[in-house]
What we know:
The protein has 255 residues and is an alpha/beta fold. It has helices at 46-53, 83-89, 105-116, 121-134, 138-141, 154-166, 184-197, 210-216, 234-239, 244-250; strands at residues 8-17, 20-30, 35-39, 63-71, 74-75, 90-93, 172-176, 202-206, 219-224, 227-233. The strands form two sheets. A six-stranded mixed β-sheet has the order 6-7-8-3-9-10, with helices on both faces. The protein has a four-stranded antiparallel β-sheet with strand order 2-1-4-5, covered by helices on one side. β7 (172-176), α7 and β8 form a beta-alpha-beta unit. 42% of the residues are buried.
Amino acid sequence: xxxxxxxxxxxSLTAIYGxxxxxxxxxxxFAANQVHALIGPSGCxxxxxxxxxxxxxxxxxxxxxxxxxxxxxxDVYGPDVSVIQLRRRVGMVFQKPTPFPTKSIxxxxxxxxxxxxxxxxxxxxxxxxxxxxxxxxxxxxKDRLKTSAMAxxxxxxxxxxxxxxxxxxxxxxxxxxxxxxxDPQGTQRIEELMFELKxxxxxxxxxxxxxxxxxxxxxxxxxYLGSMIEHGATRQMFTTPANEQTEAYITGRFG
Length: 255
């Protein structure tokens, strides 16, 4: 039997900003085609950790990382790694919807594909349609693809950003509190999509919503003050956590 490599591994990862270690010595393994939730109180390092996986933290001044992040066994911090290519393999959706304001709905989804080049208009049309279908948005926008993305509702904009992320067929999708600014209906749509999308992608989501983590994820990791406190199957973490701090956070005694 051929062993399937986990999509993402971190080894002794420390993310440092100035003189402060935002995340300290985290070693984790994320299996493919699952949803992995990162939980913990504000400022505990969840989003910092998430951003190290596709080197998005490098967009901030003064940050650096020690340790390794392995994608299918290769270190994404290797000297020969193209950050642009990495971010196509590891896509990211942020807390607030971030459609490109000067582009149409079609243009937003096709943006990464156009930069890559080499695709015919017919192929672009096919990928845009498929991506919008996978993001459960096609039926709502198929008659106005050339209109501004900014005319969409907040929930639609977030699904558009998801369609834009999956259009280049990444291996991993990073979600940084993707429903924090959405209403309950928009939140439900995004959660439902995660169950569909994990068939094709590995998903790592930061969330402050304990019920959301319990609903959508296969594994959960609890961070506190920059350290990984506990990691395990979501059902086990939410019923019989091994660490007292984890239990106190999940049951609402702090955080």
